[in-house]
Design brief:
- With about 130 residues, this protein is mostly helical.
- The chain has a domain of about 70 residues: Tetratricopeptide repeat domain (Serine Threonine Protein Phosphatase 5, Tetratricopeptide repeat, Alpha Horseshoe).
- It contains seven helices and no strands.
- The longest helix has 17 residues.
- The radius of gyration is 18 Å and the shape is globular.
- About 30% of the residues are buried.
Length: about 130
Amino acid sequence: MAFTDTAALAQAFDLFAAFVERYPDHERAASALKTLAMLTQQRGDMEGAVEHYQLLLSRYPTSEQADEAQFMIGFIYEEYIGDLDRARSAYEMVIELFPNSDLAANARQLLPHLGQPAEEWVSFQEEVSSPRAD
């Protein structure tokens, strides 16, 4: 969900914030909080996004969004804030708390390369087209 209109972004932010505040026990509250974190990140407030993800984890630690919230904390610390120690801790928490998650596998792969540009350690495969029979 990407907003280019700042008024629409602000309105969406306000609506999700109101929902989370009014309906904290709703089955979609964790999802709404995740969206609120994403909107906060899109606004450029990375510390605020981390705070929303941490709130999601504290309120809904067993929700379907919890592993992604923990992973995103690490990602934001690494990519946007540049705090590699906090990024490492966050990624390690993904592995510890959600060991069977796909994002735990991603965290295991990222940790040895923390702080390195992806171009240095990710092997990108060129698309190979098979010869066409004429």
